[in-house]
Amino acid sequence: MSEQKLIIKGREVVGDDWTVLRAAGEAPSAEDVAALAVPAGKVIVPLATWLAQAEALAARRAAGEIGVWFGPDERPETLKGQLDAFALVAVDFPKFTDGRGYSIAYNLRTRLAYAGELRAIGDVLRDQLFSMQRVGFNAYDVRADRSIHDALKGLSDFSETYQASVDQKVPLFRRAVRAAPSANVANGGDAGYGI
């Protein structure tokens, strides 16, 4: 019997019973992706597969067995108004250096108000997890050749953030309590002192 696959969900390492459906080959055609056979069980299908087979997969989606994943060149607005019907939505990171998935996640959370499980899949490494969390991811399918327990530590690499984002709506300068300006500023002193 094989070991159950593990993912990070929230801030815990948990078992995962989902399968990510991918087309075989290095550069599959859009027709190949659309025509993929969706196996039984809980499956995260590519957007093109869902769009081509939505009617046939509708009952499985309603039963919580179908999720959908977006590639870095796909737009989440394609499923506007339908996203909450999926058990989960995933964003693929085909390469560590491809950051387009961060924008997709941010838009899913802010513009499309998606509130369910948002999973990062693909080339997901510890160094990315903190930033992924900031834009709205709450589940991470870490690359198989890396330690998932080490990757979990990446969610707490930093104790404070400066910019506003999905996880912190107010930037640091609005959250910090500052002392009143000193008389030194009025006399031509350093206006940036204490920032």
From TrEMBL:
InterPro entries assigned: UCP030820
Entries under Pfam families matching the protein: DUF934 (PF06073)
Name listed for the protein in its UniProt record: DUF934 domain-containing protein
Species whose genome carries this gene: Pseudoduganella aquatica
